[in-house]
Write a structure and sequence with these properties.
binds 2-deoxy-2-fluoro-alpha-D-galactopyranose, 42% helix, six-stranded mixed β-sheet, 378 residues, Alpha-Beta Plaits, 2 domains, four-stranded antiparallel β-sheet, alpha+beta
Length: 378
């Protein structure tokens, strides 16, 4: 990939880049839709990444290697969809008083877009980290991460901070146990001897901006407002853990109650997952994945037929120990825990079953867990 972007850059820009950055995508083992509810989550950075090549120039321009088009800041017509993330970062940083020299930038890579693997956050995080170095801002990573979250929210998604914290801080073979109430994280080894994490992408594309994602985050805010009328000290839905179920039920309607109980149960699953991984309890890890999926499907209602089919396949296979949908939902990818010696058989079986049912192949690949955003030697 690095050689590919290097070659494309040279042809396009007529010079070599002075720096290349890589920003990984992420999988999430458990803890979905908990980040904007100040709960827990457990994501990890994956090998599939967005790469950025940059050289100083007389005018700033950003080019997409994959789309073959480019965007000049200030250009108001014919702005490509992908440019909103670059625009978001530049506008946010400018607003905060930061500036940068003119540059030519090309980006592209092997991270599928709209697959629930956080390609948009990879763009935002990679770009902001690269601009930080290029412009000698020296903003600490924690602050840069907060800027990245704000810049991405400016594109229209009322999202949390899970993806950006993971992409900025990822560590090889580890997940990040993130406590979203204070943005802190600690590393949890996630390698289970004899097993691999497998990602299966349904090919059902969602853009969080177009999906019901925002409706869920707005619903959570509205539930919190209702509960605060009786419990003004509450800061988030994750704080409702100690409140009796009957009390919550009396203050919410059936859908709101389902959303809230999902969030509380999912937080608990994250804690249990950390323990299960620590103690190498493979069966428990698998069951937590399946339980998480049921919660997302039935209570939080962010799944779809294709995601449910892949998770049902994992249950019926007798091979995978568990699986669940990942990310915002309404399409995107699933994660499966599969014995290494049955990986190929499982992949083929799942691809065939999916093809027979939906008439197309899912993209299936094992997840290599890698470090977060970094400058690459070339
Ligand atoms: C998307 C969002 F960007 C994250 O912040 C998170 O809410 C996730 O969906 C759901 O867990 O990736």
């Amino acid at each position: 990939m690095v050689q590919q972007i290097l070659q494309h850059f040279k042809v396009w820009a007529g010079c070599a880049p002075i720096m290349i950055y890589r920003a990984p995508g992420r999988l999430n083992l458990i803890g979905e839709h908990t980040d904007y509810n100040q709960g827990y989550c457990l994501p990890a950075a994956i090998q599939q990444s967005v790469y950025f090549a940059l050289a100083p120039a007389h005018e700033t321009v950003v080019r997409s290697m994959d789309h073959g088009d480019q965007w000049y800041p200030g250009q108001s017509i014919g702005v490509p969809d992908w440019a909103i993330y670059f625009k978001g970062v530049m506008e946010w940083m400018k607003d905060k008083g930061y500036s940068w020299p003119y540059f030519k930038l090309m980006f592209g890579g092997d991270l599928p877009v709209g697959a629930g693997l956080s390609s948009s956050s990879a763009i935002v995080c990679g770009f902001i980290a690269l601009l930080d170095e290029f412009s000698s801002w020296n903003v600490p990573t924690d602050q840069l991460t907060r800027f990245a979250v704000k810049a991405e929210q400016a594109s229209g998604v009322d999202g949390g901070m899970m993806d950006q914290i993971c992409i900025m801080n990822g560590k090889k073979d580890h997940a990040l146990f993130i406590q979203c109430s204070d943005w802190t994280h600690r590393f949890v080894p996630i390698h289970l001897e004899g097993f691999r994490w497998l990602i299966a992408d349904t090919g059902v594309r969602h853009r969080l901006i177009d999906s019901d994602y925002n409706k869920r985050s707005f619903a959570c805010k509205s539930i919190l407002r209702k509960l605060k009328t009786v419990f003004p000290e509450l800061q988030s839905l994750s704080d409702c853990k100690g409140i009796a179920a009957e009390t919550i039920r009396s203050l919410t309607d059936a859908t709101e109650y389902a959303y809230l109980s999902y969030v509380l149960e999912e937080n608990q699953r994250v804690l249990e997952m950390v323990n299960a991984l620590h103690e190498h309890q493979v069966e428990r890890v698998g069951n937590l994945l399946l339980e998480g999926h049921q919660g997302l499907k039935n209570k939080y209602q962010v799944s779809c037929d294709e995601l449910d089919f892949l998770v049902a396949f994992s249950r019926q296979s007798g091979v995978a120990r568990g699986a669940r949908m990942m990310g915002g939902g309404f399409g995107g990818s699933t994660v499966h825990l599969v014995p290494v010696d049955q990986l190929e058989t499982y992949k083929c079986g799942m691809a065939n079953a999916y093809q027979n049912k939906f008439g197309r192949s899912p993209l299936i690949f094992p997840a290599d867990i890698v470090d977060g955003v970094a400058r690459i030697d070339f």
